[in-house]
Specification:
heterodimer; A: alpha+beta; Rossmann fold; OB fold (Dihydrolipoamide Acetyltransferase, E2P); six-stranded mixed sheet; 9 helices; 22% helix; B: mainly alpha; MetI-like fold; 11 helices; 78% helix; globular
């Protein structure tokens, strides 16, 4: 189990974090500049805490009291960055083997071939990183970190620079790493749909402090956590029923209450219940059902409340569940939205992310 | 083709230039790294000091070296007593003179090369289990290699052409400190010296060209994706 109890003075605030992460995957969420990356750097040994301890399964990586501060190379903590940061002068094979070859053979937990198969890197082995696509590069970065046999993997928004289609293709690999290889992970992300496919355990950071920690669906209800998540790109989550898959058109039809919506094709059996995620800034508000518009996904609701969180204007709409919609202050002023108004929420099919099954 | 005296000049010039590169390179890499990556007080001063030989007249550099490393100089006496190393009026002094004059060129190339390497790559290497020195050598130094080669070439070529500092510090002694430029200068002041001077000029052009082509080839191979 990863235990963190550290303080560190940063440029704009003090990072002060006490958490235990007993689950395989713990997601870290917070607005930009809330200290997420600094927290990972403290665990990796790239940033030195002022006080406190960091330990994995009781072994101290850092302890101010006992004067322990293992350098990064002795922590066995893998780190996957948002940019893949592959070594440009080495082939994919050499990249993968960089950490592996530095380990004594007894300490190697995974065979190179196994990881190459798991991440489907076989055809890429002799290529240089410059000739790979974004998704391929990120898979190589994952493989490279895993082959160093880490006791913990730190993931700093590893999918953020990839487009939607690529994200969906990499998530299954992450699930393999979690389930088959059993490497604990600390996973920074902004996407609920992404996180929920890996874990339900979330740490929410704000201004360097842990605002909440625990099961996503418990803490997401809290009035101090929810607005923060909504304002910073965390998605609205709705439970929906799969109606039918339509591969010819590349969509899956789903039902939310009495409304039928189209989402990107997801290959789940009709009748199953899944979560979908919609970002607050991907929703368009209309006063009435529009005509002559290409957007087909419309959900009717009623405005509950208007608020400003962190400089962003949010409108909460009751669609059977509270939906956060981000619009510009100008639009609010111009259209005169007020609590109680009936509205229609429009969402493009490809702005909807299909998440995990409802369990 | 060449007279014995001219061979001697050529051999000495190459020896001086190679030694110059060999002694400059470790210092160039250390200072290049320091200036590219470290933040410390007096960085600007150090940077200026390293670049001083670029803007000083070489004769001034040579004279300062003579004051410092001459037999009665501040450091010259110490070096001779402790290491038995004599620099003034000696080919080793010619190495020092050309190393000092060529150093800013080398340093600039190495510093730029190190600056162009993403520092996070080295951090990734550390999290993969590499110690600081191994990570530096296999990542930063390897990626900066084309710059190191260019730096070495510039230092080599500058050394082959060094005249002012050399003649002020170690004079123009046949068989000891008479390198190609000093020899050409000497021949031109002798009656009938045009022919040997011309031969040395051709050699000096060819040498510089060869060094340039070799370094370009090597650095292109290293840069290949």
């Amino acid at each position: 189990m990863l235990s963190i109890d550290v303080t560190r003075e940063l440029a704009h605030f003090t990072l002060d974090v006490q958490v235990n992460c007993p689950y395989t995957v713990t997601a870290v969420f917070g607005p930009s500049g809330s200290g997420k990356t600094s927290l990972l750097n403290l665990v990796a040994g790239l940033l030195r805490p002022d006080h406190g301890t960091v330990s994995i399964d009781g072994d101290a990586l850092f302890s101010a009291k006992h004067g322990i501060d293992l350098p990064p190379e002795r922590r066995r903590v893998g780190y996957v960055f948002q940019d893949d940061l592959l070594f440009p002068h080495l082939t994919v094979r050499q990249n993968l083997r960089y950490g592996y070859d530095l380990l004594p053979s007894g300490a190697r937990r995974f065979a190179v071939d196994r990881i190459v198969d798991l991440l489907e890197l076989g055809p890429l082995l002799e290529r240089r990183p410059g000739l790979l696509s974004g998704g391929e590069r990120q898979r190589v970065a994952l493989g490279r970190a895993i082959l160093a046999s880490p006791r913990l993997l730190l993931m700093d928004e590893p999918l953020a620079s990839l487009d939607q289609g690529l994200k969906d293709r990499i998530i299954p690999y992450l699930r393999h790493i979690r389930s088959d290889l059993a490497i604990p992970m600390l996973y920074v992300s902004h996407s609920v749909a992404e996180i929920l496919q890996l874990t339900g355990q979330v740490i929410v950071l704000r201004q360097g402090h842990v605002l909440a920690c625990g099961d996503f669906f418990d803490i997401a209800q809290r009035s101090d956590v929810l607005p923060l998540m909504e304002a910073h790109g965390f998605e609205n989550v709705l439970a929906v029923d799969i109606v039918a898959n339509d591969p010819a058109q590349g969509v899956t039809r789903i039902r939310y209450r009495d409304r039928e919506l189209k989402v990107p094709l997801c290959d789940r059996p009709p009748g199953s219940r899944v979560f979908i995620g919609i970002r607050a800034n991907d929703i368009i508000l209309c006063r009435e059902q529009p005509e002559g518009l290409s957007v087909r996904n419309a959900i009717e609701g009623r405005i509950l409340d208007l608020s400003t969180v962190g400089g962003k204007q949010l409108i909460y709409v009751d669609v059977g569940k509270r939906l956060a919609v981000e619009i510009t202050p100008e639009a609010v002023a111009e259209l005169g939205f007020q609590a109680g108004d009936p509205v229609v929420c429009l969402v493009k099919t490809h702005s909807i992310r299909v998440g995990p099954d409802v369990e | 083709m060449l007279a014995a005296e001219e061979w001697e000049v050529l051999e000495l010039s190459l020896r001086v230039a190679m030694c110059c590169v060999v002694i400059s390179l470790p210092l160039g890499v250390s200072l290049g790294w320091l200036l590219a990556r470290a933040e410390f007080r007096g960085k600007v001063l150090l940077d200026g000091l390293c670049h001083l030989p670029l803007v000083l007249p070489p004769v001034v550099t040579g004279y300062v070296l003579l004051l410092l490393f001459g037999r009665r100089g501040l450091l010259g006496g110490v070096l001779e007593r402790t290491l038995g190393l004599q620099l003034a009026f000696n080919w080793k002094g010619a190495v020092l003179a050309s190393a000092v004059v060529g150093f800013p060129l080398m340093l600039r190339a190495i510093r730029l090369a190190i600056e162009s390497v993403d520092p996070r790559l080295e951090r990734v290497a550390r999290t993969l289990g590499a110690g600081p020195v191994y990570a530096f050598c296999t990542v930063t130094l390897r990626l900066a290699a084309p710059g190191l080669i260019v730096g070495a070439l510039l230092s080599f070529a500058r050394s082959l052409g060094e005249f002012g500092a050399t003649i002020a510090f170690v004079s123009n002694i046949q068989g000891e400190t008479r390198t190609i430029p000093s020899a050409i200068f000497t021949y031109l002041n002798q009656p009938g010296g045009e022919a040997p001077a011309a031969r040395l000029v051709v050699i000096s052009v060819l040498l510089s060209l060869a060094a340039m082509v070799a370094s370009e080839t090597v650095s292109q191979r290293l840069r290949r994706p």
